[in-house]
Amino acid sequence: MKDPVAPVAHAVEIRDLHKRFGRLEVLRGIDFAVDPGQVVCVIGPSGSGKSTLLRCVNLLEQPTSGRVVLEGVELTDPDVDIDAARRRVGMVFQQFNLFPHMTALQNVMIAQRRVLRRRASEAERIAREHLAKVGVLEKASFYPAQLSGGQQQRVAIARALAMSPALMLFDEPTSALDPELVGDVLTVMRKLAEEGMTMLVVTHEMAFARDVADRVVFMDGGVIVEDGPPDQVIGSPRHERTRSFLRRVLDPTHTDV
């Protein structure tokens, strides 16, 4: 008789997450989970806590209280090896955070060498594979100042992917880009989604969220207001606060009375 198949654990599980900065409570009891292979887009107005949520997931910000569990390992456990656990999470920021004195290739290699202790030959092979994946292999020898913003962001994505993460976090990855460069970055993210990468994406790109996300989470005031399929949250939101936000985002000329 075969052993029963164990249920697949959530890729990341967030329970009753709170974050305060002094007297300001930015996250006020966040509860949700992302399953392996899911793409979850987090939308909401500025100041709603979206970026803080991402930074708490990989403990760039220490939660005030609550639990963050990654692949069954509680990151918020005081005894956890946080460096080992954090290696399983890739993060792409609004700003590209590339080392200006290193080429694109060197930027993708450095964490592999220093954190994962990969041999130089292996790190270079993996770096080139991921630069090719995001469409900038021909820029491998270029320095960040020689690259467009979109190319720099794609190098940043390659750098994160090269670490073999179980979860990719994207914090408004197109917000610092000129409009004509946004599409190239979103194309890369769409491809990752198609390949089954687990992704938690803070974004204002509603078309991307509608087309690519398995779920959309709308946040406001440090809480989750709505969480559901894109057709529901974006196409037919249940809450007036969500409807008001989407009216402004989808029609910038609209003014609520």
UniProtKB/TrEMBL annotation:
Keywords: Amino-acid transport, ATP-binding, Cell membrane, Membrane, Nucleotide-binding, Transport. It catalyses: a polar amino acid(out) + ATP + H2O = a polar amino acid(in) + ADP + phosphate + H(+). Gene3D superfamilies: P-loop containing nucleotide triphosphate hydrolases. It is found in: Cell membrane. The keyword tRNA-binding does not apply. Its EC number is 7.4.2.1. GO terms for cellular component: plasma membrane. Residues 12-246 form the ABC transporter domain. One of its GO terms (molecular function) is ATP hydrolysis activity. It is a peripheral membrane protein. SUPFAM superfamilies: P-loop containing nucleoside triphosphate hydrolases. Pfam families: ABC_tran. Its main location: membrane. It is an enzyme of class 7 (translocase). Belongs to the ABC transporter superfamily. This is ABC-type polar-amino-acid transporter. It comes from Streptosporangium saharense.
